[in-house]
Automatic annotation (TrEMBL):
Protein name: Phytanoyl-CoA dioxygenase
Gene3D superfamilies: q2cbj1_9rhob like domain
Organism placement in taxonomy: Eukaryota, Sar, Stramenopiles, Oomycota, Peronosporomycetes
Superkingdom of the organism of origin: Eukaryota
TM helices/strands, residue ranges: none
InterPro entries in the cross-refs: Fungal_Metabolite_Diox, Phytyl_CoA_dOase-like
Species of provenance: Peronospora effusa
């Protein structure tokens, strides 16, 4: 599977991402595989190396839409982990529904 990138995910954390607040773990080269059903990638790709993004607040994390990724646990005692999440796609990219609609948790606005 060696298709050109037609979609990007961009995460912009609003607080520093550290070991305590939990980073975004990404499986390297997972975009080159048939990714199958959601939730199975980390089981099926145990042998692929992972990288975890730890960045300062406001630093964008940009990745191919097909890269398997997950947010790691926030073990800090008092820091919430708000972020902005953008998806960019070429006009010719097919529409993909890859996650069921679910309720999102509303967080109290905060000053950063």
């Amino acid at each position: 599977m060696n298709e050109k990138v037609d979609r990007l995910n961009v995460f912009v954390p609003l607080v520093a991402i550290t070991d305590q607040t939990g980073g975004t773990e990404m499986k390297t080269r997972s975009h080159l595989h048939n990714n199958g059903a959601r939730g199975t990638a980390f089981e099926g790709y145990k042998d692929l190396p992972s990288i975890t993004a730890y960045v300062e607040a406001g630093t964008p994390i940009i990745m191919d839409y097909r890269v398997w990724h997950r947010g790691l646990a926030n073990t800090s005692e008092s820091t919430v982990r708000p972020l902005l999440y953008f998806k960019y796609a070429k006009m010719t990219a097919p529409v993909v529904v890859n996650a069921p609609t679910k309720k999102r948790k509303r967080i109290t606005p905060m000053v950063v």
